[in-house]
Amino acid sequence: MQPLWAPVDVRERLGLLDATRAAALLGIFIVNLEWFNRPWEAFGTGAQPGLAGADAAVAWVVQVFVAGKAWVLFSLLFGIGFALMQARAERVGRDFAPAYRRRAWTLLAIGLAHGMLLWPGDVLRSYALAALLMLFLRDWPPRRQRNLGLVLYLLVGMAMLSMAGAYLFLDDGRDARAAAAGAAESARVYATGGYGEIMVQRVRDLLRFMANDVAVVPMALGVFLIGSWLLRSGRIAEPERHRAFHRRMACWALPLGLGLTLATRSAVASDALREAGAGAGYLAAALYQLAALPAALGILSVLVLLWLRPAGARALSAIAPAGRMALTHYLLQSLIASTLFYGYGFALWGRFGPAALLALALATFALQVLASRWWLARYRFGPVEWLWRWATYGRRPPMRLGEGAAA
Length: 407
Fold this sequence. Notes:
The protein is mainly α.
């Protein structure tokens, strides 16, 4: 008989990954909260006009240190998780691909439901599609995975830059006017609409974002491949042996990413680009995305170096339980935000500035950490994680601690 292949035992989990996943979850929520308060068409270069004081300072910090970086950090962790699951399957002599296909298709279903019922900006759909493509590259050597990942990410980024440049020259202002009209209608629906009307708007927005998967999916695949290389090369599995690598990433990649972000902010704030209308938004999106990968790699290395210090490991371990329930908390964050801000809930759309939204994100995350500690003292998985594992492995895993065999 083949050994049982089941969800990883809690004693075998890498605490560093859970803590990093929790940090990425917080970053994603901080960024997403603004998207729950402004129409998609109004984002442009990402800078909300007319901010001052604490709101202006918080908006600057979020855009420089968090926006774009959080989803790339989470994508690196997704690639690391792929490589971990593949390695465990190989250790027990199981075929990895069928279970991972079930895992990806289940994630796609969750993402589509999330996008239609709660929030159209869902990233799970793109992750699932990239994960299915990742299966074809699972046996590549680690360095080839890394190299292809970098090429994919840079090629998509350069294609985005080329399209933005063409748009700057060809834009006659019609798209900007259409976006302004769409933003006004979208804001009205989300701020005052009932659930049915808002769901129709969400589906419209979701379909538009699905069209962007032509760029997002290969970019996510590139980051997955880099994450797989990080694990298979030992840089995450054995971080103490790779301190020099993580110091280099913290000292070089992180400043590079943050520096490019700052340069982009300065460029898109210039009068010339402001007059360029919507083209400036496309240019900013491309540059911000190119900056996100080195910044996220640097942030990951900073967290690794902190983890290797006793005080840093204790601090990061405090938030790690939320990382073990990241999918549950990600969906719960959308439920909380849509209920607070949309018309069918408390209708607080647009009433909070960046400083208040940051406070809300931190308070919500703190409560999620506490809830995770309570839950995981009694159960093995978060509720959505449990269902996801059931679909992945084809059998119901034990839920309560002490129930059945370790899983």
